[in-house]
Design a protein that fits this description.
The chain is an alpha/beta fold and about 325 residues long. It has a 4-stranded mixed beta sheet with strand order 1-2-3-4, with no helix packed on it. The protein has a 3-stranded mixed beta sheet with strand order 10-8-13, covered by helices on one side. The protein has 5 helices and 15 strands.
Amino acid sequence: MILVRQTENQINVNEFNDGQLIYFYDSAEDRVKRVDSASNSLILESGYRANIGRSRLKFQYTHNANVDRRIDPSVSNIVDVYLLTRSYDTEFRKYLGGGLITKPDAPNSDSLRISFGSSLGEIKSISDEIIYHPVNYKVLFGSTADYSLQAQFKIVKNPNKTINDNDLKVRIISAINDFFDVANWDFGDRFYLGELITYITNAVTPDLSNLVIVPRQPTQSFGSLFEIQSANDEIFVSGATVDDIVIVTAITASEIRVAASAIRSNFNDLNVGSISSGTSTSSSGSSSSGLSSSGSSSSGSSSSGSSSSGSSSSGSSSSGSSSSGSSGGGYY
């Protein structure tokens, strides 16, 4: 620390510690000296220079916000913009498909501002302040998803057709990826399983008889993934692979880890009809356990609350539950 005094005549060297620097601002002196206790004198320090400053200055205080927030206190309208860049979307889908080992990082707020700020700044109002937010993908079903969102697709093939298992799995995964194309979703959308099942069914018909989705997490019950909500900065994407598809002979209570008495209510909530090979049947509690048969055909009869005595079945099974053929709201 350097002390400031007017002239040397006004100080007593003995009152200062050895090595203390003192600046004398009188115009006749204007120099910095060091206290030397050994010689009891002041020694000139030529390496220092001081200038008399100015007073009564007006200055502007500029406050800097955090690096991920750019806010002008004078603006009256803050606009939150959520952006998904094509390059990040491509890299993330490569990661989901196994093309990348490391999960790609989303662009930060500052990089989005640099890329899009100049063009958006030309059209925004002078009172607007744009806050840039990167997208967060909400991954569903596959091993890359959160454990609570991981699931298996259990399917029943059409028994009346000769179908290659691997080919059917690949076609189902392709249909799922098409359903979750980024063009079909927006931030904060809600996912309905009925729409996905309808889309898959239409894509692979008539090779598929039944399809259900079963959570991988043991503590989750059948039906817990029938409806999923995304946050305001999230977009759905599928992480499912062919390893997440299991082909079974029938959809039984043991396959979906529920009691037989609980299947009826779960499928009524999903509002998905049964699928049969080439024939659509209408079932509303038609069997005693609420299960529909795969590969069954009805001849001029429908059931509502009881099974019809005039219907004939071929290769039907009363132990399986079918869950595809109609949607809860349609696919857009």
